[in-house]
## 1
Amino acid sequence: MSDDSTKQVLAREDATTLVYLLTAAHVAAPGYRIEVVFSSSDAEGIGEEGSFSGTTSIPASVVGRNDKSDLALLRVDLSDYIMNTAFFSSTADAFDPPPPLKLSNKRAKVGTQAYSIGYPSGGVVGAAMTSGIVCGNARGLVTGRVAVGDTGKNETGGTTNDTTSIDERTRYIVTDAAMAGGMSGGPLVDSNGVVLGVNALINMELRALGNYAVDASECLEFLLRMSKRLGGSNDKQSDGSSVTACTYRIVLYNDRFNKRERVEGVLKEVASLNITEANKIMMEAHTLGRGVVREISDEEDAKSLCEELRREDLLVELEVVMMK
């Protein structure tokens, strides 16, 4: 990623394969399979049984996550899908995903026209947009909140009105542009389409005024940190080209469903860990929220082990670790 890409909600590392997307962390919960749905350029509307015609669902991986500011960066590899989707034109030189949105580098003024965009649940088919104004700015949360998700519970089983995981210093934009369940991670934009923030949560005590989006300045800082972390080191190949050196880390996350004995057995059998290693990883996941199962240099081997653990219902995730 270049520095320019940190100013985009959607950025392309390679015009033919990789796309990065910024979203809310609570919709990309650790250990869960994540998919991104693109609407193709020739989509003509709603198909049978309320489904969209001309859409493509593609697996995504989490590149980085900041639970305090509720932001996550996803990466989608399109190489296996380009030739099979309506995005790709036989006359085009490369795949051309939807154009990126620019993140504002200025503080939003009170009274600025604002539009909240997302995919609400509850019977609404497709994308929706609401309008309002920027009503104010907030730093941190002092009252209960409900994440703009589907059910009022987060994906790891905890209730979303718990403020303990929210940084008291996180900068938010407060708007009366209504947000509904399912709109998390969508953009809050101004009349020029510039992103003012990322839809995050509803502060119920403020009623119609309590729609919160993570301020664009927080998003820029997060993406700059991700850009530096993904910089890595380049190894020269014999043909003069370079590749970024990296390893792949399989991370186990704490969950409330699997019993300790079962997790221990899976780690021993599938990941070939001894009882001491398995217990150490489980303790890290319990006390710190995550524990590293293994770090592997080969991407396919790492993906294979991660999938095997997921088939055993363990909450695991594959992380790319760039070499310094």
Note: The chain has a mean pLDDT of 76.
## 2
Amino acid sequence: MAMASKVKPWRDAATLILTAHIGRTSTAASQVTPLKSPTSTNHPGSADLVVDKGYIKKAMTPENDLNHRKTIKPLSFDYNTLLLTRNVRRNTFFAGSHVFPGGAIDKADFSAAWMDLFGQAGFQHPADFGQMVSLHKERPPILKNQPTDSPVPTDVAFRICAIRETFEESGVLLLRSIKDCHPDLDNATQTNVPYGAVFDQMAESELKSWRDAVHQNASEFIRLCHNYKALPDIWSLAEWSNWLTPSDNKKRFDTMFYICSLENIPVTKHDEKETTHSEWMLPIDSLTKYCNEELYLPPPQIYELQRLCHFGQQGALHKFASDRAFLGIQRFLPVRMNSRDGLLSLLPGDDLYPENPALHHLKPEEILSTEHTMEEMAQSSQRFHRYAFRTVTDYNLTCNIELPYKHIGPKDIFEEGTVTSKL
């Protein structure tokens, strides 16, 4: 797959935030427990954030207030989100952490065979996919590069990747029958994003066989769709966000995040290869368990789950995602700054965010640092869009700026008065 740009120091990837209606409203609230010891690293994935790369070494010292406790707000939801546990033995990137399904782009996602299949439903040219591929808004760099040897639009290929990886890792298969697909489903004026179509016409043994085949060879996903006269349900995936791994990580991904709403929780099973556990949880439950060290969440998952916390009703979330699906997205490249008492992870728009953040790999000595505390840094700032980590799971995430493209920032989930500083 020949790309139109030079080689990048990261791999492109796609992730899918899946939400499913649970038919009732559930509420969760919990007292947050601090780390049990200054050097606690109970979750393997936390090594990518803390000890062996030195990101929060200063935070993990006895001088920190380990008696600091925070209470999470009692938020209600009528939907769950899917999280998968990454296999410690098979992954070197946030191994053991809880993540949304997804993975790296494969050349098969750009295969010309996809256009042959889409052609059976009338999708002959990129314009037939409507606003999905013809947005005139500012696009993140990841979607600007069209492979020179593929007729598959980049926006389509990344959605195919997200759907394929979700199938491989969780068994949830999002397909629409070819006879139900037509360019009018997503024409130039339509802005509605439909609910996801879960394909459930396979016996369990057949499903497993196809999952194994696709896992071994991504091109098998094309054959699966051809066999069942179906297309990946790219229309139900709304653009949500774009995260580029910080430049001080050795292994990096530029990842498109999509969001898809399901009417019910489908049969889900981890693959025992890339993932070892799957669970549908309330967004606030995931965050509470993270704060209580019952699971580990990478920073993008923390941000996106707190963003979901603005929406207690799946219908409201789906409408928001649908209304802004074609407005564009901004790439988030977190920039880390070591402070005297912790780690700041800065995002675009923050007063401390550099004008031209480094894209190349940073050596440890090139990571930003300050002798000031996080509180002192906060006092000199007015515009906040940052994480402040005292320890791996003791953090604040603050955003008081208006995000571009009518997107919404993370919700403050901690009870007022239980957080000692805005940071």
Note: Residues 140 and 331 are 6 Å apart (CA to CA).
